[in-house]
Specification:
- This protein is mostly beta strands.
- The chain has one helix at residues 61-72; strands at residues 4-8, 24-37, 40-55, 84-94, 99-108, 111-124, 127-137, 162-172.
- It contains 1 helix and 8 strands.
- It is globular.
């Protein structure tokens, strides 16, 4: 599989410094599988190697390293303790074999929560390409740093709770 996981959160804070909720991140997917039978997704899963998180849209090396290290810290993903995150499909609904409503369990920092999101599947010869945007509340995974739900008077230091991960899985139809 040729897999990519990208978290898109764009922009900077009012002070011009990079903020975790307004940047573009990426990381490597491992152990991915897509159960595809008779033209439909039946199941699947993937793991993300959290040690591979990188910030894609900050060109200043010092700012990039500072934010990358902070995202790997206990304030966010606790990568030293939890070096893998994962997703496993529990249900895949479709009426046409291309547009899906996917439900599954997302595990981050060892905490599992159900998520449901739309996905698209495109078959190109031997390749099956599945794309989706998974939106989840980071606080449900004990990522509370600068959350307005847990801290008061943050003003422009507030970091949004909603995270969007753009996923692209490419598998061979065997």
């Amino acid at each position: 599989m040729d897999d990519v996981l990208v978290g898109k959160m764009m922009g900077t804070g009012n002070d011009g410094l990079p903020r975790p909720d307004r940047c573009q991140l990426s990381g490597q997917i491992s152990n991915a599988q897509l159960d595809y039978l008779n033209g439909k997704i039946r199941g699947g899963s993937f793991e993300m190697d959290m040690t591979t998180i990188t910030v894609e849209d900050i060109t200043d090396a010092n700012s990039n390293a500072r934010l990358t290290n902070h995202l790997k810290s206990d304030d966010f993903f606790s990568v030293e303790k939890f070096n893998k995150s994962s997703f496993k499909i529990t249900e895949a609904k479709t009426s046409n074999g291309k547009d899906y409503q996917i439900t599954g369990n997302l595990i981050i920092k060892g905490i599992s929560n159900p998520v449901t999101f739309p996905a698209k599947v495109d078959v190109q010869g031997e390749k099956i390409i599945a794309t989706a945007s998974i939106v989840f509340d980071r606080t449900k995974f004990d990522i509370k740093y600068r959350s307005g739900n847990y801290f008061e008077n943050l003003a422009d230091k507030l970091i949004y709770d909603e995270v969007s991960l753009d996923v692209k899985l490419v598998a061979l139809n065997q």
